[in-house]
Specification:
Blueprint: H1 12-42, H2 45-76, H3 79-102, H4 109-134, H5 140-168, H6 173-191, H7 210-221, H8 225-256, H9 260-284, H10 294-311, H11 315-343, H12 349-376, H13 382-403, H14 406-418
Helix pairs in contact: 1-2, 1-4, 1-5, 1-6, 2-4, 2-7, 2-12, 3-4, 3-6, 4-12, 5-9, 5-11, 7-12, 8-9, 8-11, 8-12, 8-13, 9-11, 10-11, 10-13
C-alpha cells in the first residue's frame, strides 16, 4: 500500500518553502517602501513626481527583460538549487542597497531596485515550479492557496514595516536598510531546508534574445488551448490588481482626503483579501483544479470594483469593497495559476512560467495605460475608473465564457453541488 503523505502544514520542506517565500516578498516590499520614503525626505515635489513612478517601473521592468533567462535556468537546473542561488543574490543586492543608503545615493538606489526586481524575476519560475515538483497533483490547490496567502501577508507586513521603520530610523536610514540584509540572511537559511527537486534538463536551450525564447515557448504551447487561456486569464488578474492599486491612491486623495496610513490600510485590506480568497479557493477545490470558481470569482470582483467606484468615497465602504474585491479576485486567480503549473510540459515548465511572468507584466503595463486613457482622454474621476474597471472585467469574463464553454458549465455544476 502506498504511504499517505503528511498534510501540507506538517511537511517541514514545504514550511521552509513558505518561510523562504514570505521573507522574499517581505523584503521586496520593505525595500521598495524605505527607498520611496528616503526619496521623499531628500527630494522636492517636482523631483518626486518623476522618481516615485520610476520606483515601480524599475522593479517591474526586469520581469520583462529577465523572465526568459529565468525560465531557462528553471528548466536547466533543479528548482531547489535555483531557490538557494537567488536568495544569495538577494543578499548581495541588499548589501549594495545598504551601501547606497550610507552614501545618500538617492538616484543610484533605483539601480538597486532594478537588481531587486531582477532577483525576484529569477526567483519566480523556481518558486512556482517547485510546488508541482514536490507535491501530488491533488495537493496543488491547497499548496498554491497557502503559498498565495503567505505571499500576500508578507506584502502587507513588509509594507507596514517599511513605513514604520522609515519613521523610527528617519535620522539613520542605513540602520533601517540593515533590516533588509537580515531578512535576506534568514531567507538563505530557510531555503536550505526546502525539499529536494528533480535535476534539470540538460536539453534546455539557451537563447540570448529574450523575445525569441518567449516566441518559441508560445509556439510550443499554442495547441494547448487550456494552458494558453489559463495564462491569459491569469495575466488579467494582474491587470485588475495593478489598475486597482494605482487608482486607489487617487481615490484616497481626491474623495477620501486620507493620508498615507489610510492608503496603506486599504492596500492591506486588498492584499489580505486576495490571500484569504486563494486559501478559500484551495479549500473549495476539494483537492483538484476547480475551474467552476473562475467565472463566479471574476463576476463578484467586477461588482466589487463597481461598488468601490460608486460608494468608495465613504471610508467604511472603501474598506469593505477593497477587501471583497481582493477576496473574489483570489478565488478567480488560484485555479488559473494551478492550471498553468499542471498543464505546462515538465521539460518546459520553467519557460512556461517565465512566459507567464512576461505576460503578467504586459497586463500591468496595459493597466497603467488604461488608467491614463480613462483619466486624461475620458476625464473620469478615480471613482469612474473603478466603475470602468468593473465593466471591462465583465466584458472579459463574457469573452472567457465564449472561448471556454466548459467554464460556465463547471460553475453550474459547482453551484448545484453546493446547494
Amino acid at each position: 500500500m502506498e504511504k499517505r503523505q503528511k498534510p501540507l502544514y506538517r511537511r517541514s520542506g514545504f514550511l521552509a518553502f513558505l518561510a523562504t517565500s514570505f521573507l522574499g516578498a517581505f523584503n521586496d516590499n520593505f525595500f521598495k517602501l524605505i527607498v520611496t520614503c528616503f526619496a521623499i525626505s531628500r527630494l522636492n515635489k517636482s523631483e518626486l513626481n518623476t522618481y516615485v513612478p520610476l520606483t515601480g517601473a524599475m522593479f517591474v521592468l526586469p520581469y520583462l527583460l529577465c523572465s526568459s533567462y529565468a525560465g531557462y535556468l528553471a528548466d536547466r537546473f533543479a528548482k531547489r538549487r535555483l531557490l538557494i542561488w537567488t536568495k544569495w543574490l538577494e543578499l548581495l543586492v541588499m548589501l549594495f542597497g545598504l551601501w547606497l543608503f550610507h552614501c545618500n545615493a538617492v538616484y543610484t538606489l533605483l539601480a538597486a531596485l532594478f537588481l531587486m526586481g531582477a532577483q525576484s524575476a529569477f526567483y519566480s519560475p523556481a518558486k512556482y515550479g517547485y510546488i508541482p515538483e514536490t507535491m501530488e497533483e491533488c495537493d496543488l490547490p491547497n499548496g498554491n492557496g497557502l503559498t498565495q496567502l503567505c505571499t500576500f501577508i508578507a506584502i502587507i507586513v513588509g509594507s507596514w514595516a517599511g513605513g514604520a521603520i522609515s519613521r523610527i530610523h528617519a535620522s539613520n536610514w542605513t540602520l533601517g536598510a540593515f533590516y533588509c540584509v537580515l531578512a535576506a540572511v534568514f531567507g538563505i537559511g530557510t531555503s536550505y531546508f526546502t525539499d529536494k527537486t528533480p535535476i534539470g534538463s540538460a536539453k534546455a536551450h539557451f537563447q540570448l534574445n529574450p523575445l525569441q525564447t518567449h516566441i518559441a515557448t508560445l509556439r510550443a504551447i499554442w495547441k494547448n488551448r487550456l494552458l494558453l487561456l489559463s495564462m491569459l486569464c491569469n495575466s488579467f488578474f494582474w491587470y485588475i490588481a495593478a489598475l486597482f492599486q494605482n487608482n486607489l491612491s487617487l481615490l484616497v486623495k481626491q474623495d477620501l482626503g486620507g493620508s498615507e496610513q489610510v492608503l496603506g490600510a486599504l492596500l492591506g485590506a486588498v492584499g489580505l483579501g486576495i490571500g484569504l480568497g486563494c486559501l478559500v479557493s484551495g479549500l473549495l477545490s476539494r483537492r483538484r483544479i476547480e475551474y467552476g470558481l473562475i467565472l463566479p470569482g471574476g463576476i463578484f470582483t467586477a461588482f466589487s470594483a463597481i461598488l468601490m467606484g460608486t460608494l468608495g468615497r465613504h471610508l467604511p465602504a472603501a474598506f469593505l469593497f477593497s477587501a471583497t474585491l481582493g477576496f473574489f479576485a483570489g478565488i478567480y486567480q488560484l485555479p488559473l495559476s494551478t492550471s498553468v503549473q499542471k498543464h505546462s510540459p515538465p521539460s518546459k515548465r520553467g519557460s512556461c512560467l517565465a512566459l507567464g511572468n512576461a505576460m503578467d507584466c504586459i497586463g500591468m503595463l496595459l493597466a497603467y495605460f488604461t488608467q491614463w486613457i480613462l483619466l486624461n482622454l475620458f476625464r473620469l474621476t478615480a471613482g469612474g475608473v473603478f466603475v470602468a474597471l468593473g465593466a471591462i472585467t465583465l466584458l472579459v469574463l463574457l469573452y472567457i465564457a465564449f472561448k471556454a464553454p466548459a467554464f460556465p458549465r463547471k460553475s453550474k455544476e459547482l453551484l448545484f453541488k453546493t446547494n
